[in-house]
Write a structure and sequence with these properties.
single chain; 186 residues; alpha+beta; globular
Amino acid sequence: MKSVFSETLQTENLILRKWNESDAKVLFSLACDADIARWAGWLPHVDENYSRAIIRTVLSSDGEYAIVHRNIGQPIGSIGIRIGESLNRGIERKDEAEIGYWIGKKYWNNGYATEALKEVIRFSFENIGLNAVWCGFFDGNEASKKVTLKCGLSFHHRNEHLFNAMRSEYYCESMMSIKAEEYFKK
């Protein structure tokens, strides 16, 4: 079956493309940061080989994109879309998806997360035909809250006392969403 995902998506400043193993060095330089790992829900990358393994496994999945800045020519973050239900997160339909993203710390506060998220939302509704998209953020991540609000998502529900086995900790998150009819009204 052919994937519904494009090889690349483009915005004014960004190219969203598949991750390549040759990106391992830059991925490690971004993902070894404890603050990035904390807000993304995983452990900091320990070396370039670990980052390469993540590219081969997690980031090689359909819907996973490296966020590449046009002027820099290399990844500055990552964004991914997972279509289908996720009952423990409150996503109950197969024609909905969750989008997750992160931006390397030295690229924060430049609007890149907003620009990438807006493009993936557009693609989700206009090209894939989804009913709704969701984004969750952990308590305390005010930057992600602002990004989701700028992209037209609104608060839907809160998940409490979820367990992150990788980080061996409990967390709470706010789930934001936008439905196709809301998107097309704009």
